[in-house]
Design a protein that fits this description.
Elements (H helix, E strand, L loop, with lengths): L1 E6 L6 H11 L5 E7 L4 E6 L3 H9 L6 E7 L8 H29 L2 H22 L5 H32 L6 H25 L4 H30 L3 H25 L1
Antiparallel strand pairs: 1-3, 1-4, 2-3
Helix pairs in contact: 1-7, 1-8, 3-4, 3-6, 4-5, 4-7, 4-8, 5-8, 6-7, 7-8
Length: 263
Amino acid sequence: MQKTIFHIPKMDCPAEENLIRVKLQEVAGIRYLDFDLPNRTLNVFHEGPADTVESALLSLGLGGRCVATQPAGQPDVEDTTLQKRLLLTVLAINFALFIVEVVGGWLAGSMGLVADSLDMLSDAFVYGISLLAIGSTTTRKKQVARLAGFFQLALAVLGFSEVLRRFFTMETPPDVSAMILISILALAGNAACLYLLQQSRSREAHMRASMIFTSNDVVVNLGVIVAGLLVYSLNSCIPDLVIGGLVFVIVLYGAIRILKLSR
């Protein structure tokens, strides 16, 4: 068993981590991948030549060079049963919050809530793909990622179109009380997910990616709450449409990342 350390300068977000993970599943002899996103390094525990691993990494266009190769024992691999149980829990929370927010958003007339609900749905997709990353084949993971990406892309385009329609027709402001109350509920749910993920202290790339996505959701929830306060203060639907449009752009970007992963 050998450990080869790679420096990958363009590996700056969880999407690149997942892209690398999918690509290296095609390389025989790899036993474990240990990502260090802040330092943009990857430790590959493998059997066989390191040149094969380096060629696969270079084909992704993310840069990458071999820093060192050294003998290594068996890596300390985390319990996949605990990972699955945790990811299933946060997936269930995200999907439940999606239902609450999308229904509440339409009833309250808030595009900010509807957009946030689709962001929660996109996170459910990410958690689902992370579950497939545990002991799944590359082909199956790519198929699910592609389906999730196209579905999320369609939702983002439809949602952004609705934001534009409401902007030009200047509809009445949304129900501020419902908007803020549901956003606080979603914030509590995301905070619970983040707490569970942090308590796991996992070093796995797909688990760390889930923490980053959930942290971003907390920021979005706070943004919707602020937008609700501005709607109340200004008696205008513009703050709600602005936050809705911004979140739909985030959802669109997430769809593009998932489709990139599925290629």
